[in-house]
Amino acid sequence: MARTEESPKTAIIIGAGPAGLTAAFELLTRSRIRPTVLEKSGYMGGISRTVNYKDNRIDIGGHRFFSKSDRVMNWWLDRLPLQAVNGDYGITYHGMTRLIEKRRQAGQPPGGDAVDPKQQDRVMLLRPRQSRIYYLRRFFDYPIRLSGRTLRNLGLWRVMRITLSYLRIALFPLREERNLEQFFINRFGRELYATFFKSYTEKVWGVPCTRISAAWGAQRVKGLSIWKTLAHAVSAVGRKIFGGAQQKVETSLIEQFLYPKFGPGLMWETVAEDVKRMGGEILVSHTVTGIIADGRRITAIEARDDATGEVVTLYGDYFFSTMPIRELMRALRPPPDAAVLEVSDGLVYRDFITVGLLLRTLKIRERDHTPIKDNWIYIQEPDVLVGRVQIFNNWSPYMVAQSSNVWIGLEYFCNENDALWKMADGELIALAKEEMSRIGMIEAGEVLDATVLRMEKTYPAYFGSYDRFDEIRRFVDQVENLFLIGRNGMHRYNNQDHSMLTAMIAVDNILADRTDKSNIWEVNTEEDYHETAERTDSATAGA
Question: Which CATH superfamily groups domain 349-461?
Answer without folding.
Answer: Protoporphyrinogen oxidase, mitochondrial; domain 2 (3.90.660.20)
